[in-house]
Amino acid sequence: MPAVDPHYLWALGHGLMLSCSLYILLQTLFFRPTPTTIYKIGYSGALMSYAIVVLKTLGKPQLTQPWIRRAFVDENVQYAVLALYWWISKPINISVLPFATFSTFHCLTFLRTNIIPKFVPAPPPAQAGQPRPPPALLEATGRKIQIWVKSNYDRAMRFVAYAELAILARVIVGALTFRTSLIAPIFVAHFIRFRYHASPFTREAVTAVSTRVDGFVAGKGQAVENAWATVKRLLSSWGGMAVGQGPQPGPAAGAGAAAGPAPRRP
After folding, report:
1. Residue 51 is assigned to a structural domain of this protein
2. C-beta separation of 157 from 205 below 8 A
């Protein structure tokens, strides 16, 4: 039996995550219970995709300090661990938003680079002085997909950053109302701490939310303002987050361009 190309398994995982997420969000819109089986299938697909990428970029897991150090700061490992956490935890529908966003872009790119070319024959060589024939329908579709992905990538990553902050707010409220594990807000907060140092989109989102809260608490009384100032001070000291101080530069030149949270393709 021939071996299956890991790239196709990677795409299958993202396809499962995307399709299951759409179904889960549709159920949420109709106020129906979370389809637990679909939820776990979706995150199983995400875990498969991330595992393939991690194995390709970092190699087989090793109990060595260099490998562990690389894995600790690798964004694909971080999202794989997050996907595993959501897989074993009580379902939270909103948690699928970041993964569904990544999977949308990956599925579109896979469609453009791997599926469409199999159905589009190579164009005949252009004759001297003759205009190039118009592209076939599928070829034109592939170009439109490429343009859409490039023009919407930054917007999508900003959406992911805000979605992750919304997820943090959701699990905090859930923990306070005893509907979510007390571990959930701690875990998600640590994850966002990692993302803050790795992703300019997360830093931008944290700054924007902090500014909005500053405006909201202004004039609400000294006690409220002092409480919010204490929260910002604790966040700054705990996570190194410059809350309310404007976007901070990345740790190295060009880090922002390489810090997109979407998993890299194998």
Report:
1. yes
2. no
Cα dihedral sign, 32-35-39-41: negative
User: Could you list the residue range(s) of the whole structural domain that residue 165 is in?
Assistant: 6-119+138-258
Query: Environment class of residue 225 by beta-carbon count within 10 Å: exposed (0-12), middle (13-18) or buried (19+)?
Result: middle
Query: How many domains does the structure of the chain reveal?
Result: 1
Q: What is the DSSP letter of 97?
A: H
* Residue 141 parent element (H or E): helix 137-176
Report whether 163 contacts 94 (CB < 8 A). yes
Q: What angle do CA 159, 165, 168 make, to 5 degrees?
A: 140
How many whole angstroms separate alpha carbon 215 and alpha carbon 211?
6
Structure tokens, 49: 């995709």
Share of the chain above pLDDT 70, in %: 82
Determine which of 98-102, 131-135, 144-148, 198-202 has the lowest per-residue pLDDT on average. 131-135
Q: What is the pTM of this model?
A: 0.83
31: part of which helix (H) or strand (E)?
none
The rounded distance, in Å, linking the Cα atoms of 160 and 155 is 9
Task: Please say whether the beta carbons of 115 and 107 come within 8 A.
Answer: no
d(CA 260, CA 254): 12
- Mean pLDDT confidence for 173-181: 92
The angle at the Cα of 241, spanning 236 to 243, to the nearest 5 degrees, equals 75
Give domain status of residue 216, yes or no: yes
| Nearest by Cα to 14 from 106, 85, 93, 97 | 106
- Closest listed residue to residue 22, CA positions, set 44, 47, 39, 40: 39
